[in-house]
Amino acid sequence: MSTLLLITAAPSVIHAWHAFELTKALLIQKQQVRVFFYQDGVTVANRLLWVPDDQRNLCKEWQKLSIRLPVCVSAALARGITDQDNAARHQLHADNLASGFELVGLGELADAVQSSDRLLRF
Hints:
Layout: E1 2-7, H1 14-28, E2 32-37, H2 58-64, E3 69-72, H3 73-78, H4 84-89, E4 101-104, H5 106-115, E5 118-121
Parallel strand pairs: 1-2, 1-5, 3-4
InterPro entries: DsrEFH-like (IPR027396), Sulphur_relay_DsrE/F-like (IPR003787), Sulphur_relay_TusD/DsrE (IPR017463)
Subcellular location: Cytoplasm
Family: Belongs to the DsrE/TusD family.
């Protein structure tokens, strides 16, 4: 069974952490799992987002997994998150997309929904 996790919760919200822990559990069970970061969930991909030393860093936790980390490009740009290509295209001064994450269009989400057995939104 394949699972798609649509992550819309910001990293400061407990649901974002639940999505991460479920993804880890599914991977341990050798199940097919895909994720897609959308709406406020894209803020996890901001490498400039500061996390206090006494807290776990959700961005770094996602980066440790061996899966694709697609991020909605429109939602990311609307929240000030960009890669080098989009920074140049939109004449922005710098990029801040964390390594391991990639900006993609909503077509990728549509494909993932179509090819998954179940969709869970966090």
